Amino acid sequence: MKITRNLILLIVFSLFLAACGLLKSELDTNLEKWKSQHPGHYRYDLQIGCFCAFMDKMPLSIEVENGQVVNISDATGAAPSAQEMEWYASYTTIDKIFAYAQTATTEADQVDIQYDPDFGYPTRISIDWIEQAIDDEMGLTVSNFTVIP
Questions:
Q1: What is the pLDDT tens value at each position of the chain, 149 positions in all?
Q2: Which of 117, 122, 80 is nearest to 105 (CA)?
Q3: Of 8, 26, 75, 91, which residue is the least packed, with the fewest Cβ within 10 Å?
Q4: Which domains does the chain have, with CATH numbers?
Q5: Do 12 and 32 meet the contact criterion of CB atoms below 8 Å apart?
Q6: Which of 37, 76, 79, 31 is nearest to 58 (CA)?
């Protein structure tokens, strides 16, 4: 009887590890897609959803050229303050959003990521860092992605 119970626990644990691996695999697959098509110049809108002080400034419009932010403005059309730029720093390029997603998949209790079918970048990331905590949830939505010639 004990062998059967241990075997069941081993199978359940193996399935759990496999499920975690699938999430990473999907992220890695889309990261490879992004890197293979990585446009040198692009623009996107970013909606950050959290229990944060800057929620009234969303969405941000971000323009990136050669991996560097060349323009960023908030919903009012204003450039973010230095303090706001510190808050936004992890999301100001698609590469940084991928890095943030990779961190979340290893550190958060729950992560759900949806990807653009053509370029592979994350279009929506929902993160619950600590399942039983209140107000720790985080969401990112990338929209209006445009390659700039």
A1: 556 665 555 565 555 555 555 545 899 999 999 999 989 999 999 998 866 666 777 899 999 999 999 999 999 999 998 988 888 898 899 999 999 999 888 887 889 999 999 999 999 998 887 776 666 677 889 999 999 99
A2: 122
A3: 8
A4: 2-147 (2.50.20)
A5: no
A6: 76
